[in-house]
């Protein structure tokens, strides 16, 4: 699942890669909290996910280990930061198990089905706002969007959008490259804003976000 809400055909990708003898590492950080992932059926060689998207604690260190990410290489921080991934988190591992049990008790398919409807509502609501460009595919019978929207507003920096929403409306979104620098280079932008949802959100939350976003756009547009 990508930061532009598109779901990749990962089962096919793994099959195609194995057909030519390649190993596959699947980054499932965006997927595991939102849908059931059958690792046996997927048959990937490696699969990674993160507890911070599973309603649990942030890890001790993250982006400080690496500087820039490209499709064919990465540049790392100077020592000692590049070698310090953090202290083994025994308590956090136990807590992660509890978070997984919590989601499993609700039901991952139930969460996924609810979020598909909510994601479509967010997408259509954002597209109705003048000057907003939403990245990623449109939802359809064969294409579902994840419960997030990465977007930009014409002539307004995404960090300004996120900061104003937070300070003036109490609405928390993310701005930046979302740990996806190659994707943003492909899109031709340095950053984007991203609104993310989960099963605890409602359409009323989306409406409140859109109302706050329109007010934010009007505020910055008044300076032109």
UniProtKB/TrEMBL annotation:
Coiled-coil stretches: none
Task: Name the Gene3D superfamilies on file.
Answer: Aspartate Aminotransferase, domain 1 (3.90.1150.10), Type I PLP-dependent aspartate aminotransferase-like (Major domain) (3.40.640.10)
Provide the Aminotransferase class V domain boundaries.
9-54, 63-209
- What SUPFAM superfamilies does the entry give? PLP-dependent transferases (SSF53383)
* UniProt KW Membrane keyword: no
Q: Which InterPro entries match?
A: Aminotrans_V_dom, PyrdxlP-dep_Trfase, PyrdxlP-dep_Trfase_major, PyrdxlP-dep_Trfase_small
Q: Pfam families of this UniProt entry? A: Aminotran_5
Q: Which UniProt keywords apply?
A: Pyridoxal phosphate
UniProt xrefs under PANTHER family: CYSTEINE DESULFURASE, CYSTEINE DESULFURASE 1, CHLOROPLASTIC
This chain's protein is named: Cysteine desulfurase 1, chloroplastic
Source species of the chain: Vitis vinifera (Grape)
Please state the gene responsible for encoding this protein.
NFS2_3
């Amino acid at each position: 699942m990508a930061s532009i809400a598109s779901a990749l055909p990962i089962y096919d990708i793994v099959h195609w890669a194995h057909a030519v003898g390649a190993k596959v590492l699947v980054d499932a950080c965006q997927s595991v909290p939102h849908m059931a992932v059958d690792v046996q059926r997927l048959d990937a060689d490696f699969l990674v996910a993160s507890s911070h998207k599973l309603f649990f604690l942030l890890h001790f260190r993250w982006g400080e280990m690496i500087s820039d990410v490209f499709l064919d290489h990465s540049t790392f921080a100077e020592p000692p930061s590049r070698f310090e991934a953090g202290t083994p988190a025994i308590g956090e591992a136990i807590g992660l198990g509890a978070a997984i049990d919590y989601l499993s008790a609700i039901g991952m398919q139930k969460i996924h089905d609810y979020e598909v409807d909510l994601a479509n509502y967010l997408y259509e609501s954002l597209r109705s706002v003048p000057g907003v460009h939403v990245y990623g595919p449109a939802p359809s019978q064969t294409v579902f969007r994840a419960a997030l929207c990465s977007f930009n507003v014409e002539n307004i920096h995404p960090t300004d959008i996120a900061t104003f929403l937070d300070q003036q409306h109490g609405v928390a979104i993310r701005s930046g490259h979302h740990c996806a620098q190659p994707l943003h280079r492909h899109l031709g932008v340095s950053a984007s804003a991203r609104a993310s949802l989960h099963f605890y959100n409602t359409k009323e939350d989306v409406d409140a976000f859109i109302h706050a976003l329109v007010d934010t756009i009007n505020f910055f547009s008044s300076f032109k």
